[in-house]
DNA sequence: TAGTGGTCTAGACCACCGG
DNA sequence: CGGTGGTCTAGACCACTAG
């Protein structure tokens, strides 16, 4: 079985919205129409439209037909956690370079993020990432000790650490927690990103957890001004998060 | 009928998580256990845990028991769209002051955000908002022409414009679309927020839509550095968005 | 008032995880 | 292997919206 029935229905509707056949502000087919159209039960149809609702494409109110809210594609989970996968989905070339890799005691913020005692050993990694050749993001990551050997084995130019860890070491990120704010570029930030000291940077701090809820990494990622925008939509129930480059929706 | 069955189940589990009875990293009761415990069908139980999953409290994988990921409360929809409601939930005092209210032609960004032709008339509002007396956020909002009279009728010190519009004019925001990035403070920003020119500001641009998908307002909100952080969690399916102040989770 | 979505039930088969 | 969650069906009643 390739894909589930409800995913098939959702994907077809999504394409109709993205393609403009279902215009923004217009109405979605009713559940009963979709049931006969696809020969599916109501539960399956509702699962499909619930997915689109959670993506912010569709709005829903009891008693009224669902309406199309937006025609912008949103991110999958993998894309939010992985810069490489996100950029790949946009057709942009990503290069990365690890500048520093060292074991050291966890500072207070790293310790809290990883859920380990302050001062316990972590693997610190400093990494710059380029988008189409432009330095775009600076990553300061603390890896949990149990994941450190796998990270130390990676090449300096490794494009996606998370993908490599999944492939080579069976370490898979399942959940993430993210904090987004703005900070001024420090001396190192300015130098490595090619901006002036004090420039506004968009900062995304996040922790990645594996299937069992164990913390894999805690990271402080800083984006060059204007390079990336996070986007999100919300309605009564759901609010997925996404990212943008310049004015292009992703 | 007060609340739906699945909301009751979800709320009980949520309280157990927030209260620490279901510790982070621990396992949730199985679906069948919840079915007998509540005398509910499987569908209803699944609806409850799906809600918790979408809130980032619970992680889910086929074949394995669900686990508790986090014990942080997240935002409701209303809180994401309304600064006043969000601050109120934290027990913070909000004051607001409208500095400028003028009809004028829509600029390119306002026109695109509202989905109206460039140059058509909108109501521009400039507003400062204080948290516990500190200037925290600067709002530059364009209201759609049909909503303008209701906004013009509001007092200068109106704490929550959206709440007032709902109460007095029946204009209710149902959906929102948000863009988050970082910008340098301009002259007016710096002056009104009490920061230095060029300071990094967290910017949230957003459009609010009513029940029918009509745009009510397009807004460019800028937060003083360090005052507010957006937070989000993600897993395979969902990624709700939230906000923080300093280090306090909200 | 007819149509629509929100909630709920009681079954079923399957894929996956863990011991 | 048994337990668990993922998917799907075929019904039902209700609350709300829209014309």
From TrEMBL, chains A, B:
**Where is the organism placed in the taxonomic lineage, from the top?**
Bacteria, Bacillati, Actinomycetota, Actinomycetes, Kitasatosporales
Matching CDD domains: WHTH_GntR (cd07377)
What SMART domains does its record include? HTH_GNTR, UTRA
InterPro entries the UniProt entry points to:
Bact_HTH_transcr_reg, Chorismate_lyase_/UTRA_dom_sf, Tscrpt_reg_HTH_GntR, UTRA, WH-like_DNA-bd_sf, WH_DNA-bd_sf
Domain HTH gntR-type residue range list: 3-71
Q: Which Pfam families match?
A: GntR (PF00392), UTRA (PF07702)
Protein name as it appears in the record: GntR family transcriptional regulator
Biological source species: Streptomyces sanyensis
- Output the superkingdom of the source species: Bacteria
PROSITE patterns, alphabetized: HTH_GNTR
Keyword list, A-Z: DNA-binding, Transcription, Transcription regulation
